[in-house]
Amino acid sequence: IWATHWVADVTYTPLETTLIKGARARHARVMGGAGMCVHQAAETFKLLTGLTADIGRMQRTFAEAAAIREKSLEAAG
Predict the structure, then answer these.
(1) pLDDT > 90: what percent of the chain?
(2) Residues 6 or more apart whose Cβ sits within 8 Å of residue 37
(3) Total-model pTM
């Protein structure tokens, strides 16, 4: 039954919350806060500049920054 469910957690950090990890372990489809963060930033960019943001580029940049942050947290940890 879990495979037919979506679980969303809009927390930006950590990206892999306990809720997301538990839902994924039960084979639910999940959506974390990264997508919301990127799309909010893209909409803000458009509101402030009148230009359409490159969402793909923003997603890649977010993922790269998140990976760097996770490595630094692990090293400090």
Answers:
(1) 66
(2) 12, 62
(3) 0.74
